[in-house]
Structures are given as structure tokens and as C-alpha cells.
């Protein structure tokens, strides 16, 4: 079987591919009839002006120049690119979902009950005591976790200055800790790719506010010493933070709360199959142990005598989003979790882990760290991982995450998730192996079958053109 | 149909034969063998969540959300409902857009990259600034990011952020959370009839000031009349001028760049998403000189191996996945798909549609205020300003009582102070203004 694939490529303008809206038609409208004094209004507005059929064709063509989970396999490590069920879109599109955030709680009991039910689902799944749904993304959830840790320590008159983070952690962990005003202490991984207890001992101190950890870690390895790690962090008075990016590997098998984590975030767009939308919106609910519940962001939903109500937790950190986060995403997560239930959630995890192990067994690239769970990191060896990725595009699959974590040279971090079956995984393996057997010239010329040829990143950064106005000025 | 998932996830496509063959290929007897989890932290999988079928869940959720009262909302204060054309839903829901990831492989994601480039371009036109990113979470978080940007780019050692006394409490709370880690403090300046009190602001501003924030329209719907002077004052104190607005208002208001704004933030979801229980799309635009300090993602034009113009994420060295704790922001997942919706909506309206919509946002509140002012026990508008979408009315009756009575009659308005209510009117509720006036007559007397 040869692998053939060609992405749609629309070439309607000599300068590039599908022409920009502004190149198709622009109009300038005067504001003479606008009832405002001249010094408060602009004189004119210039923007594209196209008919609806023209717009429908423009965006349809652009969609054909874009690859999504429904186009084919998307084994992007640490991103958990799952199939997004259709019915959750319909549920989120119900007219009764579109309420204004300043509605009185009495008038939106349905909305509040759904939020409360989702909090309950997530608390059960994570083994946590209380959950806030407010953070609009995973990194926002990390930031909330950091703010909660800070508020907790301050409430005990115990100011601390450091957050410990393993070197292989997601970059957001570092950035979120810094935004909270903490210094980051980087924890070097042990030779087996896990937390090295001696290194951890050395990193921890009375200054440690928290250790941020994902489990399994970004190499797909389960931190088997987790109980000991939790004990060490708690012994110095720190909190243990769980980065939920890899929760898909644990559903029904282990819970962060049971492992000793005090605070965690959930990536509903990963674990609970809400669409990534080309980079968002996601949602990053945060779960905490009972002792941290008083610090959760406000408002929070609770069940009162007269129904569901909004309230402000006793020592709330305040707010991290203008209102209640990405509500439409939360509805989808609720419906997805309810659709799967206990058996489906456990099965999703089982199939995700099976798929990663099966795919790794079929791929010829070396996988230095084992045994892994839902994702594995292969090494492209002598090849450049970025070139490997570009060449894989020609075979009609999305490539893995490349060159990260840095513990593996020329890393290909691969996470097939549970939604691929054997034939699809075989096709992925075939793509990997075809590229593994190709010489440098072939992979450096790739991709050839995508909507655009290899794109010059350096030019984009050197000659910054961030709008069509900048293009006009440039020409 | 409920038996279908007793076997497991309905979205894992494996047959039993495939599962068995795959296990054999990896040399395992069962899937459980592949889980490397020590016994003490093993969990038995009993969450107590009952799986339901798709049909049941659609009915269940419809019934649940159906418990929300069916009110006509005259609510605004930063969250606005405008009619979203069908084109937006149908095109944004194309799965190639909806189910894709961040465009880290640009050759296979040109479509979304071009949409985001066009979104950035439209904001550049609306603000007059040179750079717009391709989204923050919402206006509140965009304001927080603007403050940390101001802190990074401003050369002197000031640490105070000045914000209007009249602004959404939530927005201010988020700002405080974003600025605390950076060691900044937030102070307020008073208002003068719902515009900035410029004399007071001049008193308060000093070399300690890192940033001055103003909104137009303000949270009370008043167009800020002295933006140019606030810009000058900000310059005089070597601070950054951050302006909050939204794309509909910007369609007719003077370009922010022309009044000296260094950063424009706001909620762009006023186009494309509606109120959605507060879900948003953070607008963030700034001057080119700050481009390397911008939070979030930027799409730039480039060329491909065939010499054709293409698009790609650029300046990624600012971002958390590369710069880690020295990144300009921790934002990773953003609101890209909402930006796509906003771009389609803006393109559908075009410049003439945008100007018409904004004109309606000026005329409708003026007209409604006049009608309420005729009622016994109501004075409207309270502020002698140009009002955009919404206005404040004073009621002889306690505002909360008026709000409650109106809610009982099927209308939602804000009670914002003891005797102040706020009413927002757009094209989505104008057909109910007669009924609102009637209800108001009863509620306010």
C-alpha cells in the first residue's frame, strides 16, 4: 500500500494562495450620518465588503486548506487530539444556553445546576473535594492553582518564594509560576526519565510553595514514587500541584487526589473531547482538597435552600476571568462525561494506552523511555525531527510534537489517543517508517502535498507583516 | 441504544478482534498490564457516573437548561448580544476548523492561519494600531496582560496602574490577580458624570504610574469624550495608555491610535458569539514598537518554497513553550475559534453594516431613554453623555425592587445602585421595547 494524500490548494491570486478578503473587495464608508460630534468619531472606515456567497466560498476554501481531527490522525503528544462528538455541539447550541452573565441566579437555575453537576463529575474523576470551572484554559488553571497556593501560604503567615518544576514539564508551568511572582527551581529528571528523589530532596526547602507535576509525565512514564514525592513536598510545608494535561492516561485507574495532590487542573478540551478550535477555546477547571476550598475563585456555585446560588468562598483569590470562563465548552464537557460514564471513561483510558503501546511497537524509530502509558517519545536519531514532521504531512497524517521534551534527542512525542483503530495506527506507523527510510534530500524537500510548500519561518520573523495593511506597505 | 456503551467508550472504534491482535502485538495478556501504577494508588474506576445515550443526553440537557426562565434581556455592562448571522455557525462549524489544533505545522493549517491573519488585520483597521494578536481569553484577562506589558516596556520604576472607578468589578479583580505577581498595585480615579474626571486624574497620575486605563464606551455606556487629553496626560507621565472598547463601537469612534492609545483591549466576541454566559474573546492590539512584548500568538505573512505568500505563527520565542518562565505570558490555548467567528461576522457586515449597526447602538438607547424619562418615577438618561447601546436611569423606587418586578414581568435589567438601573438595547431586543416601557411604568411608579 502506498500512502497518497493531497490537500486542497486554492490559487486565486498571483501573490499567494486563496486571496485575502481585502484583496477581493474593500470599501470605504463615510460616517457623516453617524449621530456623534465630529471630534468623537472617525471620518471613515475601510474594510472588506463582500456578498454572502463570496464569503461562504472563501471560508469553505480556507477550511479545505486546514487539517483537523476529522481529516485524519493527529497524534500530537501532550495535546490529546480526540474525536469531538457531534451531539455535544448541538447541546451547547441550545438557545437556553446563551444567557447573559448578569442574570439573577433565580432565573438561571438550569445553567447553575449544569455547572454544579460538572463540578461534581470532575471532583469524582480527580478525587478532589471542590472544583471551580472558571479558568478558560489549562494555563489559566495553572495560574489559579498558583494563586491558591500563594493564598494558602499567606493565610498561614508563611510567605514562600519558590515553585519546583521538572525540566520536562510543560512550558506553561514555568510561565504560570512566574506570573504568580514565584522563582522557578528546575528539577532535573533522573536517568529513567522520572523524578529523581535525591534531586527533589535538594530542590525542596522551606521556600517551596509547590511542586508542579504531571503524572504520567511528558515522556508518558508514571511517577511510581508518587506517594513518596507527595510526602517529601508536604514535609517541607509545600503543596503538590497536578498538571492535568495527561489525565487521559489515568481515567478510572488512578486519581490525583488519591496520590496526594492538593490542587489540580483539568484540560476539558483534551481529556473530555471538547474541540480545540484551532487553538481554543478550551477550559481549565481547577480541583482542590477540602483545606484549599475557601480560596477558590468567585463566584462559585452551591446548592442552597432555595435552589442553586452563586457565592464567594471565604478567602477567595478573586477572579481570573471576567465571568465564569468558557461556558459553552463546559457544556460540551458535561455532556461528553455523561455520555461515557464510568465504563466509557475507563475504556477511553485503556484504549489510549493500548494504542500508544501498539503504535510504538510498529514504529521503527527508537523509544528510549519505557514503559509508557498514553504517549511515547521516539527519537528521530540522525534525522532532524522537524524535517521528519514536514515529510509526514505528505503522507496525510499530522506529525507528532517535535523536539520536546529535550531529554530525547530529535524527539517525536506521539499520542494517538483512543480514537484511532488498528488500521489507522498501521497507517500512522507506515508514515513514520516510510520517512525513517528516506534520505535527507527527500525529507528536506517536504512537504509537497499540502496547501502550501515548506514555509520560511525566518522570513516571517525578520520581515514582520502582521496585517494586510503591512503587506500593502511592504509592496 | 443504551447497551451500546456498556462495552466502553462509544468513540473508541476498536473491535474485540482488533484489541486482541494489538495486545498480542505488544505482548500483553490484558490492557491492565500496560498500566504501570503501584497498587496503593490504584483506583477501581467507580466514579458513580452513569453512562447515557446520545438521545437521552440531548433530552436531559434540553430539559435542564429549559429550567432557565425565558426572559428578554436588556443587559449589557460589557457583555452584549448582537444578532449572529447563520453564515457564522455554518462555516465556523466546519470540522476542519473546529477540530484542528494550534497551527504549529503551518503548511497543513494555512486555512486557519489566513483567517487569523484576516482577524488581526481587521483589528488593525479598527484600532489604527499596527499589531493585533490572535486572541486573549476575554476583556478582563486582556486588561491584565496589558498591565504586565506596560510594566515590561516602561523604563522607569513605577508600579501603579490607574483604572476608572466605574468599571466592572470582575475586570478589576482579574487585573489585580495579574498584576500582583508583577509587584504592581491598582488604584482608581473618580468619574465626572460617567466620564473620566480629568482634574482628579491629573492629580493622581505621577511618575509612579505605569499605565492609565480608560474605557469608551464606559461600563455605563457613555462615550468617553476626553480620550485625547487622557492620552496626553499618560504621555506626560511616561506611562502607557490602555483603552477598553469593542469592534462595534470602534467602527464609528475615533481611531484609538489617533487619541494616543498604546494598547486597545476589549471583548471582540460582541461579534460572533453573543453573551454566552460571559464567554468572550479578548481583543489585544498595540503599537509595533511593543511587538516583541506582546502576549499570545501572532500570525505573520511569509513565503513558501514555491515563492507564494503564506502565513505562519511568528515570534514564538516570546511564548511559554519556548521562553518558559521568561515568556511574555502563560497563554497557550487561546480563543482562536471565537476569533474565527468574529472575523466571519465582521466580514459579513462589512464596513457599511458595521457603521449601520453602530449607528443603531447610538440611536436605540437615546430613544428608549426618552420614553422611560416620560414615566412617573423615572429619570433617564442619568448621564449627559452620548450613550452607546445602554444607559443608566434613576428610579424613585429602590432599584432592586424595580429589577425584581421587571423580572417577574419577563424582563432582565441591571440594578447598579440604590436607585440606579441600567438598560441595554440592541437589535436583538428592540422589538420588545414597547413591552418593556409598559412593564417599567408599573414597576417604577
Automatic annotation (TrEMBL), chain A:
One of its GO terms (molecular function) is glycine dehydrogenase (decarboxylating) activity. It comes from the Archaea. Its EC number is 1.4.4.2. Coiled coil: none annotated. Keywords: Oxidoreductase, Pyridoxal phosphate. InterPro entries: Aminotrans_V_dom (IPR000192), GDC-P_C (IPR049316), GDC_P (IPR020581), PyrdxlP-dep_Trfase (IPR015424), PyrdxlP-dep_Trfase_major (IPR015421), PyrdxlP-dep_Trfase_small (IPR015422). It is an enzyme of class 1 (oxidoreductase). Residues 348-444 form the Glycine dehydrogenase C-terminal domain. The keyword Ribosomal protein does not apply. The keyword Cytoplasm does not apply. NCBIfam families: PRK04366.1. This is glycine dehydrogenase (aminomethyl-transferring). It comes from Halalkalicoccus tibetensis. The lineage of its organism: Archaea, Methanobacteriati, Methanobacteriota, Stenosarchaea group, Halobacteria. The gene is gcvPB.
From TrEMBL, chain B:
GO terms for molecular function: glycine dehydrogenase (decarboxylating) activity. It is an enzyme of class 1 (oxidoreductase). Its EC number is 1.4.4.2. Residues 12-432 form the Glycine cleavage system P-protein N-terminal domain. Keywords: Oxidoreductase. Pfam families: GDC-P. The keyword Signal does not apply. The keyword Oxidoreductase applies. InterPro entries: GcvPA (IPR023010), GDC-P_N (IPR049315), PyrdxlP-dep_Trfase (IPR015424), PyrdxlP-dep_Trfase_major (IPR015421), PyrdxlP-dep_Trfase_small (IPR015422). It comes from the Archaea. This is Aminomethyl-transferring glycine dehydrogenase subunit GcvPA. It comes from Halalkalicoccus tibetensis.
Amino acid at each position: 500500500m502506498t500512502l497518497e494524500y493531497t490537500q486542497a490548494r486554492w490559487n486565486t491570486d498571483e501573490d499567494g494562495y486563496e486571496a485575502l478578503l481585502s484583496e477581493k473587495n474593500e470599501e470605504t464608508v463615510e460616517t457623516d450620518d453617524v449621530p456623534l460630534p465630529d471630534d468623537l468619531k472617525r471620518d471613515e472606515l475601510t474594510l472588506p465588503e463582500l456578498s454572502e456567497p463570496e464569503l461562504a466560498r472563501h471560508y469553505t476554501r480556507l477550511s479545505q486548506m486546514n487539517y483537523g481531527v476529522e481529516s485524519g490522525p493527529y497524534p500530537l503528544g501532550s495535546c490529546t487530539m480526540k474525536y469531538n462528538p457531534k451531539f455535544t455541539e448541538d447541546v451547547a447550541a441550545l438557545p437556553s444556553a446563551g444567557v447573559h452573565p448578569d442574570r439573577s441566579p433565580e432565573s438561571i437555575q438550569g445553567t447553575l445546576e449544569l455547572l454544579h453537576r460538572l463540578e461534581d463529575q470532575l471532583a469524582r474523576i480527580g478525587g478532589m473535594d471542590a472544583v471551580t470551572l472558571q479558568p478558560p484554559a489549562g494555563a489559566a488553571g495553572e495560574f489559579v492553582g498558583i494563586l491558591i497556593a500563594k493564598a494558602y501560604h499567606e493565610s498561614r503567615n508563611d510567605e514562600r518564594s519558590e515553585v519546583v518544576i521538572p525540566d520536562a514539564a510543560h512550558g506553561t508551568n514555568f510561565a504560570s509560576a512566574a506570573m504568580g511572582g514565584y522563582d522557578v527551581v528546575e528539577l532535573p529528571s533522573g536517568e529513567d526519565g522520572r523524578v529523581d528523589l535525591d534531586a527533589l530532596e535538594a530542590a525542596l526547602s522551606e521556600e517551596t510553595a509547590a511542586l508542579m507535576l504531571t503524572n504520567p509525565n511528558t515522556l508518558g512514564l508514571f511517577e511510581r514514587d508518587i506517594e513518596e514525592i507527595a510526602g517529601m513536598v508536604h514535609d517541607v510545608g509545600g503543596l503538590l500541584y497536578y498538571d492535568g494535561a495527561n489525565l487521559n492516561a489515568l481515567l478510572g485507574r488512578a486519581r490525583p487526589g488519591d496520590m496526594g495532590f492538593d490542587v489540580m487542573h483539568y484540560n476539558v478540551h483534551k481529556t473530555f473531547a471538547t474541540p480545540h478550535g484551532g487553538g481554543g477555546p478550551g477550559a481549565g477547571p481547577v480541583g482542590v482538597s477540602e483545606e484549599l476550598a475557601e480560596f477558590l475563585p468567585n463566584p462559585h456555585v452551591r446548592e442552597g435552600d432555595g435552589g442553586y446560588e452563586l457565592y464567594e468562598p471565604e478567602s477567595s483569590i478573586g477572579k481570573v476571568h471576567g465571568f465564569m470562563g468558557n461556558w459553552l465548552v463546559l457544556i460540551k464537557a458535561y455532556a461528553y462525561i455523561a455520555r461515557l460514564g464510568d465504563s466509557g471513561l475507563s475504556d477511553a483510558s485503556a484504549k489510549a494506552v493500548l494504542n500508544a503501546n501498539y503504535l510504538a511497537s510498529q514504529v521503527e524509530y527508537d523509544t528510549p523511555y519505557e514503559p509508557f502509558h498514553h504517549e511515547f517519545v521516539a527519537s528521530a536519531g540522525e534525522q532532524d525531527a522537524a524535517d521528519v514532521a514536514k515529510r509526514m504531512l505528505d503522507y496525510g497524517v499530522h506529525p507528532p510534537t517535535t523536539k520536546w521534551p529535550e531529554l530525547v534527542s530529535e524527539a517525536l512525542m506521539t499520542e494517538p489517543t483512543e480514537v484511532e483503530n488498528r488500521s489507522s495506527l498501521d497507517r500512522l506507523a507506515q508514515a513514520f517508517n516510510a520517512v525513517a527510510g528516506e534520505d535527507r534530500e527527500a525529507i528536506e524537500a517536504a512537504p509537497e502535498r499540502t496547501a502550501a510548500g515548506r514555509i520560511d519561518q525566518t522570513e516571517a520573523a525578520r520581515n514582520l507583516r502582521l496585517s494586510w495593511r503591512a503587506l500593502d506597505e511592504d509592496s | 441504544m443504551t447497551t451500546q456503551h456498556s462495552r466502553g467508550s462509544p468513540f473508541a472504534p476498536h473491535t474485540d478482534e482488533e484489541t486482541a491482535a494489538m495486545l498480542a502485538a505488544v505482548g500483553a495478556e490484558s490492557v491492565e498490564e500496560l498500566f504501570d501504577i503501584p497498587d496503593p494508588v490504584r483506583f477501581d474506576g467507580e466514579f458513580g457516573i452513569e453512562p447515557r445515550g446520545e438521545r437521552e443526553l440531548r433530552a436531559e440537557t434540553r430539559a435542564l437548561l429549559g429550567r432557565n426562565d425565558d426572559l428578554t434581556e436588556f443587559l449589557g455592562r460589557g457583555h452584549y448580544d448582537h444578532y449572529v448571522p447563520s453564515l457564522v455557525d455554518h462555516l465556523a462549524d466546519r470540522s476542519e476548523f473546529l477540530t484542528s489544533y494550534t497551527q504549529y505545522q503551518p503548511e497543513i493549517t494555512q486555512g486557519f492561519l489566513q483567517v487569523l491573519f484576516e482577524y488581526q488585520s481587521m483589528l488593525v483597521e479598527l484600532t489604527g494600531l499596527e499589531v493585533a494578536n490572535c486572541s486573549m481569553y476575554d476583556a478582563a484577562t486582556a486588561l491584565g496582560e496589558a498591565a504586565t506589558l506596560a510594566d515590561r516596556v516602561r523604563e522607569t520604576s513605577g508600579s501603579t496602574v490607574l483604572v476608572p472607578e466605574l468599571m466592572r468589578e470582575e475586570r478589576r479583580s482579574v487585573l489585580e490577580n495579574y498584576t500582583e505577581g508583577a509587584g504592581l498595585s491598582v488604584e482608581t480615579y473618580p468619574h465626572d458624570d460617567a466620564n473620566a474626571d480629568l482634574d482628579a486624574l491629573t492629580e493622581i497620575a505621577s511618575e509612579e504610574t505605569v499605565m492609565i486605563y480608560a474605557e469608551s464606551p464606559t461600563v455605563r455606556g457613555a462615550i468617553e469624550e476626553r480620550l485625547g487629553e487622557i492620552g496626553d496626560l499618560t504621555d506626560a507621565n511616561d506611562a502607557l495608555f490602555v483603552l477598553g472598547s469593542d469592534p462595534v463601537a470602534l467602527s464609528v469612534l475615533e481611531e484609538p491610535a489617533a487619541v494616543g492609545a498604546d494598547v486597545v483591549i476589549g471583548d471582540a466576541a460582541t461579534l460572533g458569539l453573543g453573551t454566552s454566559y460571559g464567554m468572550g474573546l479578548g481583543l489585544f492590539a498595540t503599537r509595533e514598537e511593543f511587538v516583541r512584548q506582546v502576549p499570545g500568538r501572532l500570525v505573520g505573512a511569509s513565503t513558501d518554497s514555491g515563492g507564494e505568500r503564506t502565513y505562519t505563527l511568528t515570534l514564538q520565542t516570546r511564548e511559554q513553550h519556548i521562553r518558559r518562565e521568561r515568556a511574555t505570558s502563560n497563554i497557550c490555548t487561546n480563543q482562536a475559534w471565537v476569533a474565527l467567528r468574529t472575523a466571519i461576522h465582521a466580514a459579513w457586515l462589512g464596513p457599511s453594516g458595521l457603521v449601520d449597526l453602530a449607528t443603531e447602538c447610538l440611536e436605540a438607547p437615546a430613544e428608549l431613554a426618552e420614553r422611560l424619562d416620560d414615566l412617573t418615577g423615572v429619570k433617564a438618561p442619568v448621564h449627559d453623555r452620548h450613550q452607546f447601546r445602554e444607559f443608566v436611569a434613576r428610579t424613585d423606587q429602590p432599584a432592586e425592587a424595580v429589577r425584581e418586578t421587571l423580572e417577574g414581568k419577563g424582563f432582565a435589567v441591571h440594578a447598579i445602585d440604590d436607585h440606579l438601573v441600567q438598560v441595554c438595547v440592541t437589535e436583538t431586543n428592540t422589538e420588545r421595547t414597547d413591552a418593556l416601557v409598559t412593564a417599567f411604568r408599573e414597576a417604577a411608579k
